[in-house]
Write a structure and sequence with these properties.
Layout (H helix, E strand, L loop, with lengths): L1 E3 L2 E3 L1 H8 L7 H11 L11 H19 L3 E7 L18 H8 L2 E3 L2 E2 L5 H10 L23 H7 L3 E7 L10 H4 L4 E5 L2 H5 L5 E4 L2 E4 L3 E2 L17 E3 L4 H15 L5 E6 L35 H26 L6 E7 L29 H4 L3 E4 L8 E3 L3 E2 L3 H8 L14 H5 L10 E5 L5 E6 L2 E6 L9 E5 L15 H14 L4
Parallel strand pairs: 3-12, 3-13, 4-15, 5-16, 6-7, 6-12
Antiparallel strand pairs: 1-2, 4-14, 7-8, 8-9, 10-11, 13-14, 17-18, 18-19, 19-20
Helix pairs in contact: 2-3, 9-10
Length: 507
C-alpha cells in the first residue's frame, strides 16, 4: 500500500487512475502528468482528497490535449466554382456557406481529383492522382479491398465513420464497398447511375437495399440492368432521397457526439437526373425537386428553378448541421470541409450559363480547363482555422488524405501523391508546395493537364495522338485560358510534356 499523509491508497487503484487507457503507452501519460502536474510526485499530500483532485486535474489536462477533432467532409456533386455567393454568385444566395467561409478559410486554387465523379472520388479517398489512381473514369472498374483510404485509417484509430449520400467510386461497386473501405455506417446510393435518380425505389443502408415508396415508369425496368441498377425516372415520386440522406447525417452526429467521428457527406445534388432530362412524361425535367420553394414564381425554366432549389437545400442542410454541432457542444471540436467533385454540368435540361456557374473560368464538367477542375473549397474549425482568411495555396483532392490524417494525429502508412495543407489551415510551420498537379481523362478523345504554379498545360485528343500539341496558359494573367502562348515558351512546353509522360503509370 502507498501512503500519503494519513491516507492509504491501494497500488492497483493508483495504477488504474494513472493509466486508465492501457492501449495508450503509459510513458506518454506519465510524461503528461509530470509536465502538467509538477507537484504531484515527490510532494507529501495531507489527504487522499487532495491527491484525487490533483490527479483529476492532471487527467483532465491530458484529455483536452489528446482530443481528436471531429471531421466532416462535404462534397457537392457538379457544383461550379461560381455557384456560391462567397465565390461571386450574383443571383442565388448561399448564406450558410458564405458564413462558413467568413468563419474559416476560403481557397481560390483548389482542384478536384478529376472532371467527373468516379475518378474524382477515388483521388479523394486514396490520395493518388489520376495518373496513379485505380479508378480513372466513369467506366467499369472497382477499388480493391487492399486499396487504402483515409476513412479506413480514421476507423482504425478510433473514429466512428459514416458515409452518407453518393459513394460512386467505380462502376458498379459492390453493396458493401463503403464498409470494406472504412465506413461503419453507409446510407445512400452506391453506384453513380442510381444516384441520378432523386426518387429511387430503394436506398442502400449498410449493404442492404431498403425499399422506398417511389415507383418507376414500368418501361424503365428494362433499361436499368447491370451497372445502371437503380437508375430511371419515377412515375410515383414520394421519397426525395437527398433530404432523407441529410436527416440520416444529423442522426449520426447525435449518436456519436461523445467520441471522435468522421462524416463523408457526399451529396448527389445539384447533379441532374440525366435520364429524366430526356423523359417527356416529366417534361424533360432532370432537375426534379419536391417543390420550387421561393423560386416558384420566377420566370425561369423548370430545370433552373430545380437547380436553384437544390442549391438552397445544400446551403440549408449545412446550416442545420452547424446548428446541431453547436447545440451538442462540439462545434469547436469539429473541422468542416466543403467542396465539389468537379466543375458545373449542363445536363438534365439545366444550362450552365443560366447562373454563370463557372464564373470567370473556361470549361465545365468533362473539361480539364479550369472550369472543369477548379472548385470551391472552404474549411471551418472555430478557434483553430483563422476566420475570414482567403488562401491561394495550390491544392487538390489528393491532399485531403494527408491533411485529415495530420489533423487527426495519424501517420500515413504508404506513399501518396498528396501533401498536407494543415500548416496553411493552422498557420503553423512551413507549408510544403506541389511542384505540379496532374490529371488525365479518357472521355471525348482523351486529355491531360498540368498545373505548375501559375502555368497551365492542356493536351487534347491523346487517344488519337499521345504526343498532341500542348496548349499553355498563364493563369496569373489569363484565368479564363483564352490566350494559348505555347509558341512563346518552347522550353516550358517541353517540361510540361515530360511531366505528363512521367506522371502516367499504366493501371
Amino acid at each position: 500500500m502507498l501512503s500519503w499523509g494519513r491516507e492509504r491508497v491501494p497500488p492497483l487503484f493508483f495504477k488504474q487512475i494513472l493509466d486508465p487507457t492501457p492501449a495508450r503507452p503509459r510513458s506518454h501519460l506519465l510524461l503528461a502528468s509530470h509536465l502538467t502536474c509538477p507537484n504531484l510526485f515527490g510532494v507529501r499530500m495531507n489527504s487522499l482528497k487532495h491527491l484525487m483532485v490533483a490527479l483529476a486535474l492532471c487527467l483532465a489536462s491530458h484529455s483536452v490535449e489528446a482530443r481528436k477533432p471531429n471531421i466532416i467532409y462535404i462534397l457537392a456533386d457538379d457544383l461550379g466554382y461560381g455557384d456560391l455567393g462567397c465565390y461571386g454568385q450574383k443571383t442565388l444566395t448561399t448564406p450558410n456557406l458564405d458564413r462558413m467561409a467568413a468563419e474559416g478559410m476560403r481557397f481560390t486554387r483548389h482542384y478536384s481529383g478529376s472532371t467527373v465523379c468516379a475518378p474524382s472520388r477515388c483521388v479523394l479517398m486514396t490520395g493518388l492522382h489520376t495518373g496513379h489512381a485505380r479508378i480513372r473514369g466513369n467506366g467499369p472498374g472497382q477499388l480493391l479491398p487492399s486499396d487504402v483510404t483515409f476513412a479506413r485509417l480514421l476507423q482504425q484509430n478510433g473514429y466512428a465513420t459514416g458515409c452518407f449520400g453518393k459513394w460512386g467510386i467505380g462502376n458498379p461497386p459492390p453493396l458493401n464497398d463503403p464498409a470494406v473501405h472504412g465506413f461503419d455506417e453507409f446510407y445512400g446510393y452506391l453506384n453513380m447511375y442510381h444516384a441520378h435518380n432523386f426518387y429511387p425505389e430503394y436506398v442502400v443502408k449498410n449493404g442492404l437495399k431498403i425499399p422506398l415508396q417511389n415507383k418507376l415508369y414500368p418501361d424503365w425496368y428494362q433499361k436499368r440492368f447491370g451497372p445502371r441498377d437503380g437508375a430511371g425516372v419515377a412515375e410515383k415520386a414520394v421519397d426525395y432521397l437527398p433530404q432523407m440522406i441529410a436527416d440520416e447525417t444529423l442522426k449520426f452526429i447525435r449518436a456519436n457526439a461523445e467520441k471522435p467521428f468522421f462524416i463523408y457527406y457526399a451529396l448527389n445534388i445539384p447533379h441532374a437526373n440525366n435520364e429524366g432530362g430526356g423523359e417527356p412524361r416529366i417534361n424533360r425535367d432532370g432537375m426534379r425537386v419536391p417543390d420550387w420553394g421561393e423560386f416558384k414564381d420566377q420566370d425561369w425554366p423548370a430545370q433552373e428553378k430545380g437547380f436553384a432549389q437544390m442549391m438552397h437545400y445544400i446551403d440549408r442542410d449545412i446550416g442545420n448541421m452547424i446548428k446541431l454541432l453547436k447545440e451538442l457542444g462540439v462545434d469547436d471540436d469539429t473541422v468542416i470541409m466543403f467542396s465539389s467533385d468537379n466543375g458545373p454540368h449542363q445536363e438534365g435540361g439545366h444550362k450552365m450559363a443560366f447562373f454563370d456557374s463557372n464564373g470567370p473560368l473556361k470549361g465545365m464538367k468533362r473539361d480539364l480547363y479550369e472550369g472543369g477542375i477548379r472548385v470551391p473549397f472552404i474549411v471551418r474549425w472555430p478557434g483553430k482555422v483563422p476566420a475570414g482568411q482567403t488562401s491561394a495555396h495550390i491544392s487538390g483532392f489528393q491532399d485531403i488524405f494527408p491533411t485529415v490524417c495530420e489533423l487527426a494525429g495519424i501517420e500515413t502508412p504508404h506513399r501518396i501523391d498528396g501533401i498536407s495543407f494543415a500548416p496553411t489551415l493552422l498557420q503553423e510551420g512551413k507549408q510544403k508546395e506541389h511542384r505540379h498537379l496532374y490529371w488525365e481523362f479518357y472521355e471525348r478523345g482523351g486529355k491531360a493537364a498540368v498545373v505548375k504554379g501559375d502555368w497551365k498545360a492542356v493536351r487534347l485528343n491523346i487517344l488519337k495522338d499521345p504526343d498532341a500539341q500542348i496548349e499553355l496558359y498563364d493563369l496569373s494573367k489569363d484565368i479564363g485560358e483564352e490566350s494559348n502562348i505555347a509558341s512563346r515558351h518552347p522550353a516550358l512546353v517541353e517540361e510540361m510534356a515530360r511531366i505528363m509522360k512521367r506522371e502516367h503509370v499504366d493501371p
